[in-house]
Amino acid sequence: MPTKNIFAGFGVRSEFVNLIYTELTNREFVSYADILALYCGRPKGYYEKMACNSEPGYGELKKAFPDVLKALREYDPTCIEDNGKTGKGKAYRYIGRSDDPLAEERKAVEQKKLEDYVAFCKASSGILPSSWFAAYFENTQLLLDTNREYESGMAQIRSSLEQNLTNIDLLPVFYKAITDKKVLRFKYHRYGQEPFTLTFHPQFLKEYNGRWFVFGDAERLRVGEQGSGIREPYQAYNVPLDRIVGEVSEVDDAEYIPAPKGFYQEFFKNIIGVTREKGAKVEEVIIRTKTEYQHGLLLTKPLHHSQQETLPFGEHDGQWYGEVRLTIEPNRELRGRILLYGENLEVVSPELLREQIKDTITKQMAQYRE
Questions:
Q1: pTM, whole model, 2 decimals?
Q2: Which listed residue, 57, 216, 336, 359, has the most CB atoms within 10 A of its CB?
């Protein structure tokens, strides 16, 4: 048995260890370059003519590969052979009897991670909605201990967001419906409108700004109507949980409609929040920062994953500012985030977004005039 469990730990090294072990136990020759290509999302053979040592994580790979080989040889000294080559072409193959020789070590680490996760769940009752936490640990000693520690002031983690939101207890209901591919029916009460009934195919849950939304395919029913409803075009229909009224029930006579593979990854890719506005398109947004502190804050807390610094903060044409660029579909959430920073941010382009921000500020100023 190996003297050290190579699967213990976390981070890049742990990723490499698991990747190397999996590839070796496929019983094919594997080189350092093969593993690096897999890790970096490169095609096989990419590093035959490219340098490896400049890639992120290469240093950890050089440590992890020998560790895996050593652990396997401790299990069976004859289970590893090499292809006889040197340099980048050198590769290794596992030829042992067992298909998973280090299964016990892997299970031990998985069990420890599970125990650590349960401990985190227990400590993080101040982050998870209490009703969601209770739904998954109902009638357990863990829930009882967590409640006692929380009431006695021993909680160690707390969120700044208040999670006691209307209908937050529906989170596990919708999550289970998504995983079990169940169709649900409920009444949706839009602000300022009469409630109407939806036959809903839940597909995705998303939180934004402390509010939970469920996305899916919808069939709308008129109030009091029973039956299959009126089909609406598939547009990732979204429902805020706090706008659901009454009971949520399962629909047994409807076939569940799943989301196309990767749909929601693409749906949210180019927006902030949850709103796709009619006619909006992806475009470059240039934002100017007016203080060095604001510039640094925006770099450490970017508005969107596409954000890039295009102009470091400094003196430009006699003025002090910096600039960042977003490749994004403008929506109300983006406008809200920009306005949140007040005079410290200025939209340079596109012109329509600049005018929308200007119009909002003008209306705000008018409210404070005597």
A1: 0.60
A2: 216
